[in-house]
Design brief:
Length: 271
């Protein structure tokens, strides 16, 4: 019998004890895309649908050990990176990617939780820009994250379009600016494909729900899964946008916790 190979996706991110975001959301998403998920945990959070009550950073040498264990044996067809918290951690992850020759990286520059809790130290922002973004295949900032990366407010569609090439100039050729924080209208995303100098608008109907915790984690993991399966950047992003829209729509029917609940990661299989 011929042996089959998994499409392998490694997520490097923080743990969400509430299960709606971070490593937990990533692994659910990767599984929902038929891929094999492995993880490197960068921080533990005490977290639920109401917010984050504590963050415990994992020692950087142990993060490096996790990366070496997974990439040295299992390997990865794509890596998704989420919460990193400190400049030392960012450098450790960047060095690990270089050490293992990782080529396909989706970087979700997580800075603030849905609840408004801060998840990235101020001094880590420069390290993110100088050491990790240049290693990425695609970065996926929302409007507040794009604002932090460029040092100015980006709150409108017009500002988001103008920011695309400046974000790409940080070193990552492909940029997806997410429109979920737009103050009015639908939540359209904008994809800049640097190698082609092309901009693609991905329409998104805004779905009324409070269950939007972990949407960024889920979207970036879906993109990484699609890239691992061999899709090009534009196709991977389009399919991931379809997936997250369906997951938000299905999750809106559920009640869990007293705050921002999760999306439904397995809606394609059962509801």
């Amino acid at each position: 019998m011929n042996q089959r190979a998994y499409h392998r996706v490694l997520t490097i991110a923080g743990s969400d004890s509430g299960g709606g975001a971070g490593i937990q959301a990533d692994l659910k998403t990767i599984a929902a895309h038929g891929c094999y998920g492995a993880s490197v945990i960068t921080a533990l959070t005490a977290q639920n649908t109401l917010g984050v009550t504590g963050i415990h950073a994992v020692p950087v040498d142990f993060v490096a050990a996790q990366m070496d264990a997974v990439l040295g044996d299992i390997g990865a067809d794509a890596v998704k990176i989420g919460m990193l918290f400190s400049p030392e951690l960012i450098r450790t992850v960047a060095q690990g990617l270089i050490r293992h020759g990782v080529k396909t990286v989706v970087l979700d520059p997580v800075m603030v939780a849905q609840s408004g809790d801060k998840l990235l130290q101020d001094e880590a922002i420069e390290a993110l820009k100088s050491e990790l973004i240049p290693l990425a295949t695609l970065i996926t900032p929302n409007l507040p994250e794009a604002s932090v990366l460029l040092g100015r407010e980006i709150a409108t569609r017009e500002a988001a379009f103008k920011a695309l090439t400046q974000l790409a100039a940080l070193g990552c050729a492909n940029v997806l600016v997410k429109g979920g924080h737009l103050e009015s209208g639908d939540s359209d995303d904008i994809l800049y494909l640097g190698p082609e100098g092309r901009i693609v608008t991905l329409p998104g109907v805004r779905i009324p729900t409070r269950n939007n915790h972990g949407t960024g984690c889920t979207l970036s993991s879906a993109i990484a899964s699609n890239l691992a399966r061999g899709e090009d950047v534009e196709t991977a992003v389009r399919h991931a946008k379809e997936y997250i829209s369906g997951a938000i729509r299905a999750g809106a029917a559920y009640v869990i916790g007293r705050g921002h609940g999760p999306v439904h990661h397995f809606y394609r299989f059962f509801e």
